Amino acid sequence: MPNAETRYTVYPIPPVPGQHHIVQYKDLRLQAIQTDRHHFTSSYEREASLTYEQWKARLQSREKTTIVAAASFQSSERLSWQHKWVGMVTVIGPKILKKFGFKPPRSVTGCGVCYCFVGVWVDPSHRGKGLGKEMILSGLDWIRADDVSDSGVEKRTLLLQVTQGNHPAIGLYSAMGFRLLEAEDGLEENLWMSMELGVKPV
Questions:
Q1: Is residue 87 within 8 Å of residue 122, measured between CB atoms?
Q2: How crowded is residue 36: how many other Cβ atoms within 10 Å of its Cβ?
Q3: How many other CB atoms are found less than 10 A from the CB of residue 125?
Q4: Which InterPro entries does the annotation name (predicted)?
Q5: Per residue in 100-129, pLDDT tens?
Q6: Which residue, among 153, 151, 149, 141, has the nearest Cα to 63 in the 3D structure?
Q7: Cβ(196)–Cβ(157) under 8 Å?
């Protein structure tokens, strides 16, 4: 549990992750799905069956990044500082989206290149600390620094999905500049939100 001495840091997992990164990511991802199952399209059973190499492959890429929030605290049993990952978000770049045939909502088609924020999650015990915002801001920094190989690309459109009725998340993203997109058939369980980063210098 967080206390007055808890400290937080937000940083990206390196594109060549170490074993400790992979193990911590797996544990956090499984915890997230088990805690908030309705916010994820995958299932706990499916994710728990993945091999070590499959978890490694999720992180080992320069075309996407996973940002984590880490809590540092002193436990009552030990004098040394303990560290635990308590939040995460993954930013998927345009090359991977294109590879998997991603089609953005019709209302943003033709708006430059797209990036997607997925798997945004913070441990309930550490919510209300601004970690979601800090992770999104770190993701925006990664996008700004990303060198899109396609020449002539100007505008970068950022996309994310949020569950209908998740008002805290919608409020956070709206305050950061994302706007809700109109549902295309009115039946979607998840809503799209988007934001544009503007022109990239050539």
A1: yes
A2: 14
A3: 12
A4: Acyl_CoA_acyltransferase, GNAT_dom
A5: 999 888 888 666 789 999 999 999 999 999
A6: 149
A7: yes
